[in-house]
Design brief:
The complex is a heterodimer of chains A (452) and B (109). Chain A is an alpha+beta fold and 452 residues long. Chain A is built from 11 helices and 23 strands. In chain B, 16% of the residues lie in helices and 28% in strands. The chains are: A alpha+beta (452), B alpha+beta (109). Chains A and B meet through strand 1, helix 1, helix 2, strand 3 and strand 4 of A and helix 1, strand 1, strand 2, strand 3 and strand 4 of B.
């Protein structure tokens, strides 16, 4: 074969089935209970029944119940040749990685189907969100990669895939659910001791980093330290009555969001920072008219936001560059903002000025108004929408649209300096060419000539 | 992928494996399979998703309670006819590539 053939399957025996209680608690908090959205997951067990209704929501049954469980096996015929010279696997505490940290998954799509083709397929993404040992990544994973290892750039094991695919309210979320390896191994080592398997427990415990062998408080502190000053901390949750979405803090008392999040001028909104700081009330001082293609609102806060690194605005828009989106889409207030990575897939210009940005980052409902950053943390724009095919009802989270900061920056600068709203009102009067772009109706200026 | 990802790729390929579960009884069940991680080659320890052994639980898949049930189940929780197999690759490092020299053909699938 073109690839080196995988080893013949080796027999193994089950040592135990283990789950991480903290993972289960986080899972119940985020996906179970009173959460109204219907979450679905692709699990590692038998195929779900045909009746889709029976596989929806928190009462999914065995498939969902197995989601946080992992099996520890021992190979029965591990040869000396395999052992010699194989470097030791290292495990890194998941809590030591900040959101947005690059991750690599290494799994086998479709499980044991055709391993000479699919064994150890790689996928790249970032740590999108974390709730204790429950992690989310935007690395694309497929069914069969349940149990796959997720590694840091240094090659340390961070997590195992718990569910490769997630849907919320029938929309593919584009994130994979992970269980932190350190927490899982700690639980498994404890269980092995209770089963009297001291030697195996010692082997597992030896894989754990020193701080993970102690309490979980240390790594949590490390995360806070590492995240201090991160660009994504400028993302905020904006609540306007029963509607909520994302926004970005541009100055201590200035937040930018979308009109469809904060639609009415003079309306009070509550802004919750991504940090542990208390929420701050604000007022919508400007929202574009419904007829404007620019879906923008400006919020003036009653108090200053503290401890937030206000972003530098990007002065360039390069197609193909690495970008990330920060939004509260997947979980709202329950889990802080999610970071998803991708590239700037298109910059649409009118008269040589960018008027629309497109990215490959996964974007979900609730991310509207959230910031789009370059890899160096400069603010490129704000997210306004992802894509839906109205004929099929399918939503595509990896094609989404942003308003470039270049469109907003002159008017915002003037507002910040003088409090003058008139320049912002110009956003209600864009050219017809801009309107056509945002209606997704632009046609080429000249019809393409056939080359035949 | 760039040099930056070298250590992660190497670690993934060293540790990555596939685990299959099937029944050995008269009515053979499965196989169910998933990905896994070779935690420790010397000790032969492998971690994989628990869903593939759920069909072999004596108490049924419901034994994996999502709520406040037990956080682990011993090997006796599964039927005796459960058979587990682990398959892993040689990786794509220089040594593995050396094995490929002169081997050009279409992979059968």
């Amino acid at each position: 074969s073109a690839q080196p053939a995988p080893r013949s399957p080796a027999c193994a025996r089950l040592l135990l089935l283990a789950c991480c209680p903290a993972f289960r608690a986080s899972f119940a908090r985020l996906f179970g209970g009173d959460v109204p959205e219907q979450w679905r997951f692709a699990g590692g067990g038998p195929e779900p029944p045909e009746d889709e209704a029976s596989t929806s929501g928190a009462d999914e049954g065995p498939l969902l119940a197995a989601l946080g469980w992992f099996a520890l096996l021992r190979l029965e015929d591990c040869t000396v040749k395999e052992v010699m010279g194989s470097p030791r696997l290292s495990v890194v505490p998941a809590a030591s990685l900040p959101k947005g940290a690059p991750l690599l998954t290494c799994g086998s799509p479709f499980g044991a189907f055709c391993p000479d083709i699919f064994l150890n397929s790689l996928s790249r993404g970032v740590l999108s969100n974390a709730a204790g040992p429950l992690l989310l990544t935007d690395a694309r994973c497929l069914p069969g990669t349940e149990g796959a290892g997720v590694f840091s750039t240094h090659g340390a094991l961070v997590a195992l895939v718990a569910a490769p695919l997630c849907w919320r309210a029938r929309e593919w979320v584009g994130l994979s659910l992970l269980c932190a390896a350190d927490a899982l191994l700690r639980s498994a080592a404890l269980a092995l001791r209770r089963l009297g398997l001291q030697a195996e427990a010692k082997e597992l415990a030896a894989l754990l980093p020193r701080q993970a062998r102690d309490t979980s408080a240390g790594p949590q502190r490390a995360q806070v330290l590492q995240e201090h000053g991160a660009a994504w901390l400028a993302a905020v949750l904006v609540e306007c009555g029963s509607v909520w979405g994302s926004g970005v803090a541009l100055a201590p008392r200035l937040v930018l969001t979308c009109r469809h999040v904060a639609p009415r001028e003079n309306k009070r909104v509550l802004v919750r920072p991504a940090t542990k700081s208390p929420p701050v009330w604000g007022e919508v001082v400007f929202a574009t008219q419904d007829t404007s293609p620019y879906d923008v609102a400006v919020v003036k806060l009653e108090e200053s936001l503290k401890g937030i690194p206000f972003p530098v605005l990007a002065s360039y828009f390069h197609e193909g560059e690495d970008v990330c989106v920060v939004g509260f889409g997947a979980f709202g207030q329950a889990c802080g903002p999610s970071v998803t990575s991708g590239i700037l897939s298109a910059v649409v210009e009118v008269n040589e000025a960018p008027v629309m940005l497109q990215t490959t980052c996964a974007v979900h409902g609730g991310s509207s108004g959230g910031p789009l950053f370059t890899s160096s943390g400069e603010l490129l724009g704000i997210i306004t929408s992802n894509t839906r095919d109205n004929s099929t009802g399918a939503t595509y989270p990896h094609l989404n649209f942003s308003i470039p900061m270049a469109v907003l920056q002159p008017a915002l600068s003037q507002y910040r300096c003088t409090g003058e709203l008139l320049p912002l009102r110009e956003l209600d009067r864009p050219s017809e060419q801009v309107r056509v772009v945002w209606r997704l109706q632009r046609v080429p200026a000249q019809p393409h000539q056939s080359k035949l | 992928m760039g040099r930056r990802w070298g250590p992660a790729m190497a670690a993934g390929e060293r540790a990555g494996c596939v685990v299959s579960a099937r029944g050995a009884g008269a009515e053979a069940e499965g196989p169910w399979s998933c990905s896994g991680v070779l935690l420790n080659r010397r000790a032969g320890l492998v971690l994989c998703h628990g869903g593939i052994v759920a069909p072999f639980l004596r108490a049924g898949p419901g034994a994996l309670q999502p709520g406040t049930g037990p956080s682990f189940l011993g090997p006796d929780s599964c039927r005796d006819d459960l058979r587990l197999y682990v398959q892993w690759g040689p990786g794509r490092g220089p040594r593995a590539r050396a094995e490929l020299r002169g081997a050009l053909c279409t992979p059968p699938c």
